Fold these 3 entries.
Entry 1:
Amino acid sequence: MYTLYYLPGACSLATQAVLHELDQPVELIDVQQLDNFTDINPVGSVPVLIDGDSTLREGAAILLHLLNKHKNPMLPTSGASREQAIEDILFANATMHPAYGRLFFIAQHITDIHAKQTAFTAAAEAINTLWQVVEQQLAGRDFLGGERASAADIMLAVYFRWGANFPVTITQGSNTSRMLDAVQEMPSFQRSVAAEQTQSAA
C-alpha cells in the first residue's frame, strides 16, 4: 500500500485520483494534522508519496513513477504518444501549476487593495492564455491523450478548481470545459474528493 501526504484540494488530489485509476490502495495523511511534516519534506509541499522504502516528493516525478510502475493506458509504452503524454504532464506541473500558484502568492503577500487586484488581473490573463493552449490541443479529441483521460487532464482539473477561490475571471473554451467536466465526473476523481473530505473531518 502507498502512503500519500496531502492537503485538501491541493495538487495531491491528482496523485490520489491517478492511484485510484491504477486500482492501487493508498493511505491518506493530512499534513495539517502533523507537527513534523518538514521532516518528511523540507520544502513543506505536497504531494509526498511513500512507496516501500522510497519517498517521492515532486508531483510530476510521483505520477511518472506510478505510471511507469503499473501497466495502464494513461502512459503509452513508446513512441510519439508517450512523449506527448510526458510533455502534457510537465506542462500541467511546470507551466499551469505555477500560473495558478501566483494567485495564492498574491492573496497571501500583497496587502494594498489596488495593487492586489492589478496583480490578480495580470495573473488571470496569463492563466487564460494557457487555457487557450489547452483548448487548441483538445480540438477534435475528448482529452489531451485522445479518447481517455490522462494524468495531465486530471492535474488540470485540480488546478481549475482553485480559480473559484480568487476574485478573478478565468475562462475556458468549450473543448476544455467538456474535458474538465468529464474528469471531475470520473469515479476516481469523485472518490478522491470524498476521501479527502472524510479524512480531514475525522
Note: The two ends are 21 Å apart (CA to CA).
Entry 2:
Amino acid sequence: MSTVIIEGGSPLLGTVQVSGTRNSALKLMAAAMFSNDDVILQNVPKMDAIEDDIKMIRVLGGKADWAGAGRLILNGSGITSYEVPLEMGSKYRTSLLMAPPLLFRFGKASIPKYKTRLTVPRPVNRILDVWRSLGVVVEEDEDYYFISSATAVSGHVNFKIPSHMSTDTLIMTAAFLPGETEINNASEECEIDDLIDLINAMGGDVVRSEPRVIKVNGVNVFKGASLEVQPDKTEAVIYAVAALITKGNVVIKNINRNVMVPLVNFFTKIGARYEFEQNSIKIWRHDEEFQATNLTIAPTPGFVPDWQSAATLLLTQCSGIAYVHDTVYTDRFGYIKDLNRMGAKIELLKPSEAGMISVVGDDTYDVERLGEPYTVAKTTGPVKLKGEKLNITDFRYGAVHVLAALIAEGRSEIEGIDVLDCYMENFTSKLKNLGAKIWGQQE
C-alpha cells in the first residue's frame, strides 16, 4: 500500500474541477453492452474501478477503448462469453450490473460474488429478490451467482426500502423484457437518471413518472448513442468541506446544483458561506465561528450516506453539540475511532440514547438478534486535531482521514492512500493544486 505524509494547517485556495462520477459511469458502461453499435461516454473518470471494468468488458469480448481524455467508446457486439472471470468480478459489487446485458444476449449470466479484502461476501439480497420476483432464476455456489432469464416476465415491483443499485439492475433487466415493468419506491439518486437517459438514447423506453416511480417498457433492439457522465457529487462535497475546515477559499467547478441542495442547506444552518455561479460553487471561511446542528442521513432527496463522514468531521469544528443520525446504514461510522485518536470528541450512541427513534434502513441488519444499532454520532466542538498515523482500509470514508490530516497540528502519516485511487480521480493531486502539503513517504 502507498503512504503519504500530510502536514496540516494550510488553507486551501484556488479552483478545482470535479470529475465525472464512477457511480454513473460504471452502470452506463454495463448498459452500453446491450448495443452492437458504438456507445460514446464523455466525462468518464480515469480510475482503478473504471479500468477494471474496461478489462472485464474486453475479456468478455466487448469493446471499451479510450479516445481522448474522459472519452470512452464501448460496443457489445463482440461479446462471446456470459461468464465474468472470478478474479475480476469479485473485486466490486457493481459486477452484477453486467448481468442484464448478458441475460439479453445469452439468456444466462455467471457473475462472481463480491468479496471484500477480508473475502466476506457483501449482501446483495435486494437485487436477487427483485430478479426472482420477475421470474429470473438465481442459483449460487460459494463463488458465483448463476442467473437465467428464460422464465423472466415484466411486472410490478415494490421496494420496501429505496435501493440505488437494485433500481439500476431492475431498470436494465426490464429494458429487454416484453411488456411494462413498474418500479415503485425506486431510488431517486441522480445517477439513475443518467442510466435512464442512456437507455432511452439507445432506443429503450424508460420514464420516471414520479420521483419514486419508474416505468420500463421492454424493447429488443438497442442502438448506438452518446452521453456525458454527470459530475461526482461526493467529490464536490469533499472539496467544499475541505475549504471550510481549512479556512480556505475554493471555487468548485463542474457541479450539478440541484443535487447540492441538501449540502448547502446544512451549510446554511452552521453559518457557512457559499455562492453559486452557473455550474460552480464558491466556498470560503475566515475566522467566523460555525454553530453545530443536528443532521439526519437519509436516501435522496435527503443528506446521502456518502456525505456523512465529511459532515461529521465538519461538525467537530463547530461550536456546541450535534447529533448525526444515519437512518440508512448501520456500519458507516468506522472512522470515528481514528478521529478521536486525533483529538475529536465523537461518541457513538444508540438512537434511543440520544432521544431519537431508531430507523434501520439496512434490511440485512437483524434488529431482533443484534438489538438497537449504534447509528448516532454525537459531536462536541470545536476541537483541535493533532497529526497521527492512519490507515485507510475502506474507501467509503477514506477521504475523511485525509481531510482530518489537513487541519491537524503537525504531520500525519496515511497508509493505504491507493484505496482512494479506485474511486476518485486524481484526488491527492487536486488537493496539492489547492495548496495542501502532501508528499510521498520517500520525498
Note: The longest helix spans residues 48-60.
Entry 3:
Amino acid sequence: MQVIVVREKKEIRQNVDRWKKQGLKVGFVPTMGFFHKGHLSLMKKSLKMSDRTVVSIFVNPTQFGPNEDFDKYPRDIERDIKLAEETGVHAVFIPTVKEMYSGNSKTWVTVEDLSKNLCGKSRPGHFKGVATVVAKLFNIVQPDVAIFGQKDFQQLCIIKQMVKDLDFPIQIVGAPIYREKDGLAMSSRNAYLTDEERHSATCLFKALKMAKDLIDRDEVERAKDLFSIIKSFIETFPFTKIDYIFIGDPESLEPVDELKKPLLIALAVYLGKTRLIDNILIN
C-alpha cells in the first residue's frame, strides 16, 4: 500500500474521517523527522495497535529557544517518506509552519508542575511549545492511540497529563528507548556528534547503568551521594558538560532525598555543542 503524503490539515482530516467511517482504529506517531530506528519502532508499535497509522513530520519552532538549533535541526523529508512507506505507515502529514500557526496565535497549553524540573528548568518555554503543538496535532488528526518514546520521559508524562486534564479521547502509549549497540539512546541530534564526541556520548547510558547497579546492591542510600557519583563519572569523559542530573519520583517529577523505588534517573549532557538526554526507570 502506497503511503499518502499530506500537507494540509483539511486533507489529513478527510482521510482519517474516511477510515473512521469504515470502523478502523487510527494510530498516530508525532515526530520532528530525520528518522532513525527508534522512530521506526514507534511506527511499528502503532501499526500493531491500530488499523491505520499516521506519522507527522513537523519541526516545531515554538519548542525551540532563541539560541537553540531550530534552523540547523537535521531534515531529510524524502528519505523520511521512503522509510515510513517501507515500514507500512498509511499517511505522512507534513505541514508547514504557516499551516500549523496562523501568525497571530494567542492560545497556549501549559501543563504546570510537571514542566518545572529536568528539561523544563534548562529550556524555559519548551514544554509550552510541545504541549501546544501536540494538542493541535491531536485535534487535527483525531487519533485513537498515540505513541511516544520514553527517551523523552518528561514529555511523555506531560502529554499523559494534558490528555487526562483536557479529556482527549486518546490512549497514550510509551515505547521503550531504542539504543545503539553501545547503549547510546538513538536521537536525531546524534548526527551532530564528531567521532570523538560520539565515543564520549556512551557516558550517559554507562552512568545510568552504574547508578541502577549501585541502587540494586543497596550501596548508596541518599540521592545527593548518587548525584556526586554520577557527576564525577560523567566528567571523566572528554567533551562533556552536564546540564542536569535528576533523581526523583517518576510520577510527580520532583527530586527526592532517599532512594526509594520506583525511581527516575534522568540526564542531560552536552557533548561539545550537542545536548543529549537519557533516563532509566528503576522499579
Note: The chain has a mean pLDDT of 97.
